[in-house]
Fold this sequence. Notes:
Oligomer: single chain
Order of helices and strands: HHHHHHHHHHHHHHHHHHHHHHH
Structural class: mainly alpha
Family: Belongs to the monovalent cation:proton antiporter 1 (CPA1) transporter (TC 2.A.36) family.
Largest sheet: none
Membrane topology: Multi-pass membrane protein
CATH topology of the largest domain: Na+/H+ antiporter like fold
CATH architecture of the largest domain: Up-down Bundle
GO molecular function: potassium:proton antiporter activity; sodium:proton antiporter activity
Number of strands: 0
Radius of gyration: 26 Å
Domain Cation/H+ exchanger transmembrane: 18-418
Shape: globular
Transmembrane segments: 6-23, 28-45, 57-78, 85-109, 180-201, 213-229, 235-255, 276-294, 306-326, 363-386, 392-415
Number of helices: 23
CATH class of the largest domain: Mainly Alpha
Amino acid sequence: MSYEGILLFVLGAVCVIVAVRWVTEKTGLPAAVLLTLIGILYAYLPGPNLDLDPELVLTFILPPLLYNAALDSSLLDIRHNMRTVISLSVVLVLVTALLIGLGFSLWVAGATLAAGVALGATVAPPDPVAALAVGRKAGLPGKLVTLIQGEGLLNDATALTILTVAVAAWRDGNFNFDNAVGQFVISASGGVLVGVAVAYAVRMLKALRYDPLNANALSLITPLAAYLICENSFVHHYVTISGVLAVVVAGLIVGHDTPRYTTGASRLQVSAVWRLIDFLLEGMVFLLIGQQVPHVVRGLAEYETSTILIALAITLGVVLLLRPLWLVTTQWLPRSLHTRLGGQDEPETDVEKREAPLTGKEVVALSWAGTRGVITLAAVFTLPIGFPDRELLRFCAIAVVLVTLVGQGLTFAPLMRWLGLRANQTDKAKLRNEARSAAVIVALDRLDDIQEQQHDNVEDEAIETMRTQLQFRLDRYQRRLDLLEQVESHEVPESPQYEAALMVRQAVIDAEREELLRWRDAGRLDDDNLRMLNRELDHEELILPKRPSGS
């Protein structure tokens, strides 16, 4: 494809992504599903197509997506639920890969254990992007979001390591379990160490991160640097290290440190940049997934229909049935072997509150959140030429992606509503207002300390002005808490006074902005000063809640 063709394709793709986002906002349909279906439709139309380059995806697309997801995750929540996260992202991925490998070697004509394990590794890791996008809109409870997020961040490293071992076993002619385990431990440990080192290197550059432009530049290169350190040919000559795991670990630590080591302006700009990158990359990925369908289907001409159906049945059967079976089984294990929610050993007084096993509804939700996506296709497309049953494995992988992405993606939100699984918005609103109140109380105490140290009349006046403003905010938060304490439902009650105040503030901001524009148009205000004053109004508008009843 020429450069003009690539540019035309990219421009068209961006237009489609923007249009799909508008449609999803109006209808509530998952964007990932719509983009995938559009990609399939476009692939059968005449015109330029882009083939999925696995190295490009694994090097330039996957690290930024995982890094941004890690930045938005909670290191503390994932650490608290680490036993369950490890159960899903490591043990379940291993079991899935081995079962599919055994199934292929036993029932698929001519298939080897290495080929089956390779396929199992590619289809084992769920892609949390689609599930979380739908789940958040459906108001999924926070603990389920944490588990889906934690699993999605760590399972890619497990899957890619298993895939590497399977390909190496094919080249060597045998599958050595001991060597495979050793390689997995080395790869994972190395990835964690590199991720920690990169995160602490970023922390040492905290002086640069106070400037918004420097903070953006550092944030953009961090995931690529972490991945490159692990995956470059020089390091691979001596040891195999998981670049994906390094990116995730670095993102979790940097995200945890960000409130402490950056300014407000840096955080606002970095967050905006990453939202745009995430939006465009995810859209491109799902369009590319759909476009690979015709190419993969054409590669099945050499296989008998019975072979294709058996391979597909084994793959889909393991992927769809093993996950709920695993989640149910782990709830019955003794406590000493338990992989249930909140697996850390803590005092018995906290067990009931923080370590309750998953309920039946939560097991169903987690089971249905196992959508596969870009990592599955990128991984299966890395299989080298000459790998046994390469085209069959590609077809099974893309079939799993389509079945889970479309089937589970379209039904996830209705299923959550039917199960009644929603976050307790009242408790979240209480917590926010309690935290706001605590912050204001500390600020008032700090004013007292400043007043004791200063005696200038002008400074006393400034202190009293600030005290009045803080006390007004504290009274507002306390009134909000009093209202929330009386609520018995999980939904935040509407407050006509609060919504009226927001409406008035928005109207005032709009009036100020219109007057500034009139000054500019009349020649009384230059554009530089207009942009500066508009930024002040933009920041005021930014802190207004989009959903007044949810504040």
